[in-house]
Amino acid sequence: GEDVEQSLFLSVREGDSSVINCTYTDSSSTYLYWYKQEPGAGLQLLTYIFSNMDMKQDQRLTVLLNKKDKHLSLRIADTQTGDSAIYFCAESISGYSTLTFGKGTMLLVSP
Amino acid sequence: NAGVTQTPKFQVLKTGQSMTLQCAQDMNHNSMYWYRQDPGMGLRLIYYSASEGTTDKGEVPNGYNVSRLNKREFSLRLESAAPSQTSVYFCASSREQGAKGYTFGSGTRLTVV
User: Fold this and answer.
1) Which residues of B sit within 8 Å Cβ distance of A?
2) Does A30 score more than 90 pLDDT?
C-alpha cells in the first residue's frame, strides 16, 4: 500500500541550509511533490519531480530522489525566517491516482 | 484570480447538528477533493470527484457525504456532526486526477462541541 513518512520537526538558523527528508513505499510512484503550508493557510505547491529524474533545482530549492531507497529530500539554501512553515511530501501513483501525503515536517527558522 | 474558495472559514457546531461545507473553483479543473487535517495525522482524503458527475470515497469517508453540483462546485456535508469531526477541512482541485499540482483552498476550521 501507499505510505509516506517524514520527520516531524526541524530547527535551523537563518542563513543555514535546511534538508527535509521523506520516504515512500510504493515503487510505482510517478510524481513526488513538496507542498508548503504557512500558519492558517492552505497548502501551496512548491515543486515536484518526475520519477525518472534524480534531481531538480529551482532557485533556492533542490529536490533529490533516490528511487532505489525510495527517499526524497528537499534542500532549502540560505533559509530565511519566512521559510518557517510545515512542509508536506506527497506521492502520486501513475497519472490517475489521488495524492497521498506525509504527516508534514514543521520547519522552524530562528534569527 | 480566486482559485479555490471555501466557505465558511470557521464554524462551531453542536453534536448532532448538520452542515454543508462549500467549495468552488474557477480554474476549469475536472477533479476536486476534500481532505481533513488533524494534528499528527497529516492530510487524509475524505472524498474526491475525478470528473463532473462522479464521486468516490477516500481514506476516511464515514460520517460525510459529497455532491459534485457542477464542474465548479464540490460540497461536503456532515449529516450528524460528532466531536471526532473537529478538524480543518481543505478542498482542492486539479486539472485531472493525479495531475501535477493540486490547488488548495484556505480551509474551513470546524469545531464540534
Assistant:
1) 4, 33, 35, 40-43, 45, 48, 58, 90, 92, 96-107
2) no
